Amino acid sequence: MGLGGFLGAVWQVELVRMVVLAAVVFSFLAVGGPLFLVLAERKISAWIQARVGPKHVGPHGLLQTVADTLKLLYKENIVPHRADVVLFSVAPVLVAVAALLDFVVIPFAPGWVVRDLNVGILYFAAVSSLTVIGILTGGWASNNKYSLLGGLRSAAQMVSYELPLGFSLLVVATLTGTLSTVRIVEAQPYPAHFYPPVIVAALVFLTAATAEANRIPFDLPEAEAELVAGYFSEYTPMRFALFQLGEYGSLLASSALFTTLFLGGWKGPFALPGLGPVGNGLVWFLGKTYAVVFLLMWVRWTYPRFRIDQLLNISWKLLLPVSMVNLLVAGLLVVAVR
Amino acid sequence: MPLDWAYVAVFALVGAGMAALPLGIVWLLAPRSAYPQKRIPYESGIVPFGEAWSQFHVRYYLFGLAFLLFDIEVIYIYPWAVVLRELGWFAFVEMLIFLGVLGVGLAYAWKKGALEWV
Amino acid sequence: MNAEALAFYALAAMVLVGGVLVVQSRNLVHAAVSLVPTLLGVAGLYVLLHAEFVTAIQILIYVGAITVLILFVILLTEGATGLRVRQRNEQVPLALLVCGGLAVLLLGVLGRVPWGPPAGPMPPYNPGAVGRSLLMPYVLAFEVASLVILASLVGAIVIARREK
User: Fold this and answer.
1) Sign, Cα dihedral of B15, B16, B19, B22
2) In DSSP terms, which residues pair with A112 in a beta bridge?
3) Quick one: chain C helix, strand, coil %, rounded to 5?
């Protein structure tokens, strides 16, 4: 077959490259995401609560999540009575894939981005919204009233917070005049980096990202004491693990995006000795991203959770009007300074 | 440029495959001893009563609808953000009007109680 | 057959299969979820037309918002109680006749259109170009769009509240 066209003359090479890159990024996501973050969460919560956390499996408990994951492979796969088998299996895969797709536009180091899409941040917003469908169908497919309720609430919450998140992205787009993540990193620090519009946008972003990831203080849909585990109560081993992959994955992706938009991405104040530009960029980028994740985990273990009506009010009656005004202020700044 | 999106498509497929892989492994390895009691939906141990799909309130719909409409509004702002710098005041005023109209909509929804949960 | 043609056929198949599933499924939730591959396929077709801004919008709005809204509606009404929707009735022969006639008509019309690649290079279609055209030549349409959105919001609230 003479495939050519946009794949280039040697299409096999391009195809192999795509598949390998996808596998590599997925592995990074699986390992640097839930595998590492679940453990990090347990250790951090332990530290905040003045206890030690897992410490037996591997040095300092580092292999704990690996052990847990291997254990999950052996657990019985229970499909609830009269549940919708097809959707029951598809939903967790959809959530995991949505988290993976987020990473296509994240620049890890200079020149290290999967594809620098022209519509970068818009693409990120679009792909993040795919998670909602996975959660809705997952909650419904379990044939459990509480799962369904959890799924609906989670969907209502995620959808409400997507708007302020979008507005934060727009502030950055307004100041830089581009939607491409690579160009946004290159444009930092913005001339107006410490002016109110950017600070407000950053704060709104963090709040909305926490809500999107269903984390405390916004985790009512999963509230452990109330809805068991919310929309994923009925999901046994690997399907559950895939939902976790999606959740922690999108947390990591949001942190990575925050780093890219507001913290300078892979740029660092000084060059580390012994590493080339790529290694340098990678270290700074990952360091900042995980610092943001740490911040969000710290918040989780410090605050109580909001009620559903408080949660929705915060989004629609506070964050949204503030974001709209903030965007206009940012626009004013851009126009007044040109 | 379609190449960019080809990467996205491949990522989605490979991701789906790699995500489905553990599911396959579980299907092979895990014990199977399903009996009816195990498969009853979990309601903190009691026997569930009533259909799972009872009717829910219209408020979910209203939030979803409000989200949809504001999402469409956000769509219009993306191109504006990119060209604001070169088009200047005229573009700014246009957006002021645009967001103003939608702000009226938000205020209306707020006043009419469409944004209340209870 | 080059990559573009292959992609086109694959995407078109996705759209058509999804569409058939939407219309044919007896379970309403399955029907709604089948919209997702259909709409994603359409987004892919936009990529082939070099309209990536519209692709992103398609995914964001159609898959991310409209499908979610449809699912909300289905779960709010009786459709989710496992009610099976009857997909065949007595009017099948008449329907086949009408569809056949429509197909012949459409194929006849489509056959007469001079399809062919456009003469010059394609105009740029990126967010910048869209922005420039929205804010200058089409500014009135842009502002009217906000009014249309406002009208939809007000209308939906009025209708929903009347039922409370």
Assistant:
1) negative
2) A109
3) 75, 0, 20
Please count the structural domains in chain C.
2
Contact A161, B66 (CB under 8 A): no
Is C149 domain-assigned? yes
Question: Which chains pack against A, by 3+ Cβ pairs within 8 A?
Answer: B, C
Q: Is C20 found in the same domain as C73?
A: yes
Residues 6 or more apart whose CB falls under 8 angstroms from that of A158 comprise A131, A132, A135, A211, A212, A214
Domain coverage including residue C147: 126-164
Tell whether C102 is covered by a domain. no
Closest residue by Cα to residue A210 from A287, A314, A107: A314
Q: Which of C45, C72, C138 is best to mutate for the B interface (most B CBs within 10 A)? A: C72
Domain of B50, in residue numbers: 2-111
* pLDDT value for B53: 44
Looking at C65, C86, C107, which one is the last position of a domain? C86
Q: Which two tokens stand for residue A300?
A: 């989780």
pLDDT digits (tens, 9 = 90+) for A202-232: 999 998 888 888 777 666 656 544 545 555 5
- Which ipTM score applies to this complex? 0.85
Tokens of A122: 């818009």
pTM score, two decimals?
Answer: 0.88
CATH at B87: 1.20.58.1610
Range 85-114 of A in CB contact (< 8 A) with B = 89, 92-93, 96-97, 100-101, 104, 114
**Residue C100: inside a domain:** no
Residues paired with residue A109 on neighbouring β-strands, in sequence order: A112
